[in-house]
Amino acid sequence: MNLSLVIPVYNEAASLPLLYEAIEKALKPLKQQWEVIFVDDGSRDNSLDVLRSLAERNPNHVCVLVFRRNFGQTAAISAGIDHAQGDTIVLMDSDLQNDPADIPRLLAKLDEGYDLVSGWRKDRKDNRLTRTIPSNIANGLISTVTGVHLHDYGCTLKAYRREVLGGFRLYGEMHRFIPVFAHSVGARITEIPVSHHPRKFGKANYGLDRTAKVILDLFTVKFLLEYSHKPIRLFGGAGVGLMLLGMVDLAYVFIRRAFFGVPASTSPLLLIGVMLFILGFQSVLMGLIAELLARTYHESQQKPTYTLREIIQGNKKK
Fold it and tell me: Scanning 51, 137, 194, 236, which has its CA 20 to 30 A from the CA of 252?
C-alpha cells in the first residue's frame, strides 16, 4: 500500500458521498495503491449507514472504523493511523472544506525530500470572529512556544511519511501538535497553501472553547518536548530561584534587625522568606523525584533516546 487517507467522521452523512467521489477523482491518476480509512466517531446521524454503503461498493479502497461512542477527533486520527497500511499517510476532514484535489500537490512536495507537508488555508472560508482570528492567535502562540513555525496548525490536511508518526501517542486535542512531535524526531517539515471551501452541510463542531483547550495542551507539549527527559531543569530551576529569593529576603530581615533594630518576629518578610525557601527546596525534591520517574518510564519500556533516519555502511544505506 502506497497511500492511506485517514478521515475522522462525525455527523457528516450528506458530505461523505461527494467527498469519496472527489477522492477517487484526485487519486486515480496517481497510479498508486491507496486506501481511505473513515473513522466514525460516534455519529448520531446516518453517517455510519453511508460509510457501510461506501465500503460495500469499494472494498479495495474503503475501510471503516466504528467507535462505540464519541471519543473526539484526536482519538479518531490516532485509530486511523494505527490501522493505516500506507507508507504515506494523509489526514483530512470529512466536511468538504478540505479539497482532495490538493492531495497530489502534498505528495509531490513529499517527493522533494520532506517528511511532513502541512496544508495552509491561506484564504480561509470560516467565520472570522469565532474561527479565523482565534485560530491565528493559537497558531502564532504554538509557533512561538515550540519553535516549529507553521501558519496553520489547525488545518487537518497534511501528508506524513509513516516513520515520523511513531514514538508518541495522541491525547486530548494533541492531533494539531503532530508537526511538533514529528519535528522533535528530526522530521523535515514544510507547508503549502491549499484550497478551503465554505461548509456545505451541517455546522461546525468546534467553537471558541477549543482555543482554550489548545492553549492548555500547549503547556503539556512544551513540557514533554523540553523537560520529559530532564525534568530537574524545570523543577530544579524554579526551586533554586525560589530559594535564592527566600535567602535574599531573609538576609534583608537580618540586616534590618542587626543594624537598625527593626524586630524580625513582627515583620511579614520573615514568614515570606521562610516560605519561599521551603517552596524552593520542595520544588528541587520534586525535580529529583520526576527524574527517577522519567528514567523508570524510559528504561522499563525501552524508550529510545534518539531516532535514526538511516544507517550508512560503505556505499549502502539501510
Answer: 236
